[in-house]
Amino acid sequence: MRIYNKLIISLAIALSSVNIFLAFLGQDDISVYFIVNAIVYLIITLLYVYLNPRAKFALNSLSAIIFVAFLVVVTMEVIEILK
Description:
The radius of gyration is 15 Å and the shape is flat. By secondary structure, the protein is mostly helical. It has one domain (about 5-80). It contains three helices and no strands. The chain starts with a helix and ends with a helix.
């Protein structure tokens, strides 16, 4: 099995497990789902460092976009708490 397939399978299993767990807990806030999924995605992609440069560049670009969106959501939550 190639490393790309392992990455996709591990992301699918981890994100599905997290979403099922959050649904089981009765979480209904979409920002919580996004924050937890973003953290899981970033952790798993950090574990797969042995990709070719082109794939790694694409993965890092996507990670940067998700991280910026994560910061926006967290900032909006902090502003809402401070009001």
